[in-house]
Every structure is written in structure tokens, then in C-alpha cells.
Amino acid sequence: MNQPLSVFIICQDEERIIDSCLRQAAKLADEIVIVDSGSSDRTLEIARRYTDRIFHQDWLGYGRQKNSALSRCSNEWVLSLDADEVLSDALIGEIRKLDLRAPAYRIARKLFIGDRFIRWGGYYPDYQLRLFRKSLGRFSNAMVHESVKLSCHDQCPQLKHPLEHFSYRDLMEMKTAFREFARLSDRKRNFPRAVMNFAYTFLNKFLLRFGFLHGLMGLRLALNHAEYSYLKYRQNPPGYLATPFQTGINDHEVAHHPASLGEHSLPNR
């Protein structure tokens, strides 16, 4: 890679993993840009070890927040990372060798629940467009599940090596996150669609995409995802989260919250 690179990250209360994220990013980046939405833990203290390009921005939603960080990047080539993602040495080496003939590149993600890599169930390789020319790309303004939109229609190659995504400490944290995403969904209330989505998502994740190879964890992952697909189309009042089937996971545990949204906080993804 013969061009300077800016890495940009949005965060809030990510002290658990952001040191690993930034340590690896610093091996590759000419500039690291951080946009924080109000951390109350050691996130900013850790971030200052790696960069002085740290900005505060009240939470705008994932898409707009990332565009805020993107706009602060000085270089034409940019790499978007979440604060719970870590570049492997193999991926860093691959990016360094790129000829940059394409306008953008897609990078696979290895999802970890705790310290367990989730290969089956449709969670891998989960390619995301992350490395791109700043002048050609911008994030959608979605509140959640944002994506990069390019102003050109050229092919975007997939890189061979993945980054590591340490998004959830356990299945309960994942379940809590998915329920919050469902609350933010803009889908119209549709009970028949909700039920069909639950059934299809469970069968797809657990059977068609071999989630059963993860055993009990694969079953719970499929149920978590199926519940999310159901709740997107329910939009019941806050607190009503019943589904056609029970996931068998207790609801009393509380997840951490890396980004605030008014009175609410958004969980990891």
C-alpha cells in the first residue's frame, strides 16, 4: 500500500477491547481518528496512548456517527473499524501489499462469543466493505445496520484474511443487543411476517447454515437471531418481548452499553 491511510473508530465505554483494537491499528495507520459519544470508563485514557485525533460527538445513530468520523480523516484512503474489532497481523500484511487499483475492499469478520469463534450458522465470513477511498464512499444514515455506499459501481475485491470481532462476552449480551436493535427497527408491524421470519431464520441459521455444529451454543444463537427477526415486525410497547418460542436464556443479566442514544444505549454488534 503506497498511500497514507486513516483508520477511524466510533466508540463509547469500550475499555474492554479498545486497547487491542488500537494497538493493531497503529501498526498500519498513518492517522487514527476516534469519535467518542461520551465514555465514562477508561476508553479515552487508553485512546490517548495511540492518537491525539479524538473528538466528541453526541450520538447520532451508527450511520451518521461514522460519517462524522469519516469527515475528520485527513487521507484519501480510509479504514473503518468498530471498537471491538482487531486487525490480525496477517490482514495487516495483506493490506500493506495492496496495489489499490480498486475503489474499495471487503474484509471478512470472525465473530467471537467470549473466546469462542463462531464459524457456523451464517456468521462467517460476514464480508463488510471497510477499506475505501474517502472521496467515493459514505455511510448510509441508518440508525443501525449502516453500510458504506459508493458513488461508483466498480468491483470491490474481497481480502483473504479476516479481522477478529469480539462483539459479545456471552449469549445474554448478544440477546440484549438484538432486542435493542429490534426496538430501533423501522419495520412496519406485521404479525404474520414476524412469525414467518422467526421460523425461517431459525431453520436457516440452525439447519441450512449448519449452526447445529456448535451444539447447544448453535441452538441458542439460532434462537437469539430468530427472536430478533420476530421482534423487528412486532414493535410492541417497551417491555413486551414475548416470542412464539422461549429461548431458554434468563433475562436478568445486563449487557454493557458502548453508545448512547438519548435515554437509551446501543449495544455491541
Helix content: 25-40%
**Main sheet: strand order:** 3-2-1-4-9-6
Query: What's the number of helices?
Result: 7
Shape, principal axes of CA atoms: globular
**What's the CATH superfamily of the largest domain, by name?**
Spore Coat Polysaccharide Biosynthesis Protein SpsA, Chain A
This entry's quaternary arrangement is: single chain
Q: Structural class from helices and strands?
A: alpha/beta
How far is the first residue's CA from the last residue's CA? 29 Å
Could you name the CATH topology of the largest domain?
Answer: Spore Coat Polysaccharide Biosynthesis Protein SpsA, Chain A
CATH class group of the largest domain: Alpha Beta
Radius of gyration: 19 Å
Layout of helices and strands:
Blueprint: E1 5-11, H1 18-25, E2 31-36, H2 43-47, E3 54-56, H3 62-71, E4 77-82, E5 85-86, H4 89-96, E6 104-107, E7 109-113, E8 116-117, E9 128-133, E10 137-139, E11 148-150, E12 163-168, H5 171-184, H6 191-208, H7 216-231, E13 259-261, E14 264-266
Parallel strand pairs: 1-2, 1-4, 2-3, 7-12
Antiparallel strand pairs: 4-9, 5-12, 6-9, 7-8, 10-11, 13-14
Helix pairs in contact: 5-7, 6-7
Would you give an account of this structure?
It is a single chain. The chain has 269 residues and is of the alpha/beta class. The chain folds into two domains: 5-167, Spore Coat Polysaccharide Biosynthesis Protein SpsA, Chain A; 171-252, no CATH class. Helix content is 29%, strand content 22%. It has seven helices and 14 strands. The protein has helices at residues 18-25, 43-47, 62-71, 89-96, 171-184, 191-208, 216-231; strands at 5-11, 31-36, 54-56, 77-82, 85-86, 104-107, 109-113, 116-117, 128-133, 137-139, 148-150, 163-168, 259-261, 264-266. It starts with a strand and ends with a strand.
